[in-house]
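Note to self: keep these together.
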Amino acid sequence: MNEQTFSCDWLGRTLTIKTGKLARQANAAVTVQYGDTSVLATVVEAKEERAGIDFFPLMVEFEEKLYAAGIIKGSRWIKREGRPSDEAVLTGRMIDRSIRPLFGADSKKDVQVIITVLSTDMQNDYDIISLIATSAALSLAGLNWRGPISGVRVGRVEGKYIFNPTYAERELSDLDLIVAGTDKKTIMIEAAGKEIKEADMLDAIKQGQIELRGALDLVKKAQANVKLAEKKPAKKLISQDELNAEAENEKIFALAKDWLNKNISKILFDKTYYTKGERKAAVSAIKDNLDQYLFDQNISKDQRAQAIKHLVEGMVEAEVTRAILQDKKRVDGRKLDQIRELSAEAGILPRIHGSGLFNRGETQVLSIVTLGAPGMEQSLEGLEGVGTKRYMHHYNFAPFSVGEARPVRSAGRREIGHGALAEKALAPVLPTKEEFPYTIRVVSETLGSNGSSSMAATCGSSLALMDAGVPIKKTVVGIAMGLASNIDMSQWEILTDIQDLEDGQGGMDFKITSTADGITAIQLDTKTTGLTEEIITKTITQSKKAKLEILEAMNKAINKPRPDLSPYAPRITSFHIEPDRIREVIGTGGKVINEIIAATGVSIDIDDDGLVMVCGTDAAKVIEAVDWIKNIVRDFEVGEIFKGKVVRLMDFGAFIQLTPNKDGMAHVSELAPYRVGRPEDFINIGDEVTVKIIEIDDMSRVNLSLKDLPENEHLWKDGKGKQEMGAFGNGPRFNGGDNDRRGGRSSGGFRR
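Structure:
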């Protein structure tokens, strides 16, 4: 293939598609550049079908290469890229959800899409460019794919839409929306918003559908002008015996279809199946009865199994869809806009910092909050640079939640995606770091799953955060909306709160989260060739009723954050110091701050702006550490009175510790209302005395006096240490405070 280039101006920047130069052994390979961000997408289809599978084997791999951002991995020992970051997983999932619905369902050949970020300009996000590159590569690969598609990011700053906003513009935006689809239909939506009104979200989706067309037209231009190598159909020699077997199977399948058409509805709708177990039993009954029927027709065991495997599930889904479209009837007896039974509880676990249990039908999620010190933030390293994350949501999906026994693995793409969605949903209502300086981790354990456990995780997280006393601004709820439609989508119905049998072909999973005032997140994927504006509008409108019902149920459990944290949660005290005094608290090589931590057992975090956060589970120790730090940076004033220990005696006076890092000197003439000969005859090291600051010289040395303070009268009783006039001890005054003493600690300096 010769190298070819196609360019256009798209939303104020040049979009370029190149093919024919890189990765020539792939079925198709393209590079797409937008600004100085460049992405390579390759597509390879296996030569043979994979035997024994009943699904389309599509693999979408998104690879972040740190060289694209001029970064070498920060680890001292590992410099090669490791497992994909969560951001890479989420980008790969977004692309997968956009392209998968347009593949033919009959293909069983492995198709692998690999997207590699080659360079990034730190302005144009690579996710939209990767989606377009994938669409272009698939369009040139000659596969059974009904593309091309395109995508665009929509932001909004001060009420004005910005398309494909830069990273800087996204920081100012109250909306982060990705719309993917054709020029007429929407296939995928990924959105985060700061309580966006439903009408505004619909308008943003509509505008995105319009603006993605510029890139779509360029992909179509490349598709029309690139000549692809013809794919030779695989030769398959079929014997006469195989032809006879195939004809026999067709007869058996026709026999089975006829029986299913007559009996599925009778079994599936002969009564209301309220539980997932009942519905599974009904499907099993259909399979068993079909097996018996075919057995009576003298069909062999293997042929019966083939017919059951290939026909029953699909025809059951088709009958469920038919009943919804024609009879407005659901298998569990609900109305199309009816939500399942709801319940919510908060604070159900002892000792942990916060918990929430949310049930919707047979979907059950337990969310647990753990609060930590600011230093427990997650460190991030990726193509977008380095940073930290103070709020994390982790979603777990155990096999028992669907009644299965299988090996437990580490979190997969689905778990990462569901956790990220719930995290995105709650982010707009979280307090700022200044308002609530804790690191927050929420873990949602899926205990039962039958329809949108990710939305249950959102609700459970909201309950748990309020139970933990995290001052979230509003309660966030979530619901999954579904779709039943025929092949040409001339008939369709929107379903509220989909479950098991309703998530089939011609359907969708449209997840929406919001507060009472607006949308915080949307995630859409569909098993259709795309949704019209009318479908999306009805979905968002119909979801509002369900969300208000969920909000009412949650408010019965807890309707606002608890006023106090759990007694087992760490306490954080935060205050500001002058930024130029931070080094005094830290000390040379961290000696001062480490000494405070070792002595009190707290953790200490200091921001560059001087925000100090002291965290610990022992309130008394937290107070001790706070006082210690404040004393380090305090400014002393003449007239202040302190109670301190005598730490050193000299011929000319006594040194008294005022704070952990500051001593003052009381001259021998300031120890008593009479003449004291030698300080050691009057007081001892370790004695506690009350002193007043009488002078601070231009070198910040502090001079003290014990005289005229009632707290010291017991020292003068009996004239202790009194000397007659002329005796030793009436030497010249010394401005003490900086003499080295006690293992190198200097008065007036900072603790090392």
